[in-house]
Amino acid sequence: MQKLVLYGDDPLPEALLSFMDVIETIELRFLSTDLMIHFGFEDEHSVDHAVLRAIQACRSLKIPPSRHFRKIFIIRENGIIPAWKLSVLGCYLTLVNENPAHPLVARMQASILMQLR
Predict the structure, then answer these.
(1) Is-above-0.85 flag for pTM?
(2) 5, 58, 87, 103: which one has the fewest Cβ atoms less than 10 Å from its Cβ?
(3) Range of the domain at 81
């Protein structure tokens, strides 16, 4: 995706800021809550910690986390729950940083190591 280059010191109009936010959000196609259900992760806090580790990985690589992770809140029958919207990269990094005791995570981590050989 191309970056928008701005010239001058004038503040951006609210409509343009909203448009930029929508464009950035389009790439965030996955929900952390769906990962939990689809892959059978039991602990929502574990997924949350995996997301935070994935965000740290992005920062270490100088990748803007806002392009791959966004904290949201979902309204459910039993109340409001926090979740994350994730890009493809955000989803991958979250899964790799999940608990290695989970068979899927262990297989993913082993697969990455095998590719490096």
Answers:
(1) no
(2) 5
(3) 25-116
